[in-house]
Amino acid sequence: MPPPGVCLNILNERHEKEGRGSVSNPDKFLDQDFKKLHQYCLMNEFRFIDGMFPPECSSIGDGLLHQNELARIVWQRPRIMVKDPRFILGGVSRFDFRQGRLVLEIWEVG
């Protein structure tokens, strides 16, 4: 049985070529346009920093980590962590992200 109402509309729209919400035509979060931001950063030799999620301890949230754990956090860009970073590889799935859960990896350096 197909999903009713709004769900069916969303699924149909996503299955259309170039449909809203697809990888080639993503929905904009807070009216941010990736292509425009990317072009701006390249032209101005500027590395993008997301104002909604800046690389600082306040982005993690209150009470999720102890102070000693917060002090050990090192914010890094993806290219520092892996040779060829990719945001989407092999398609997108609703199982790709663990929403509402903080995953903490502690890497020992040295």
TrEMBL record:
Ranges that cross the membrane: none
Pfam families per UniProt: Peptidase_C2
InterPro entries the UniProt entry points to: Calpain_cysteine_protease, Papain-like_cys_pep_sf, Peptidase_C2_calpain_cat
PROSITE patterns: CALPAIN_CAT
GO cellular component, one term: cytoplasm
GO MF, one example: calcium-dependent cysteine-type endopeptidase activity
Origin superkingdom: Eukaryota
UniProt GO BP: proteolysis
SUPFAM superfamilies named among the record's database cross-references: Cysteine proteinases (SSF54001)
Family as reported in the entry's similarity comment: Belongs to the peptidase C2 family.
Name of the protein described by the UniProt record: Calpain catalytic domain-containing protein
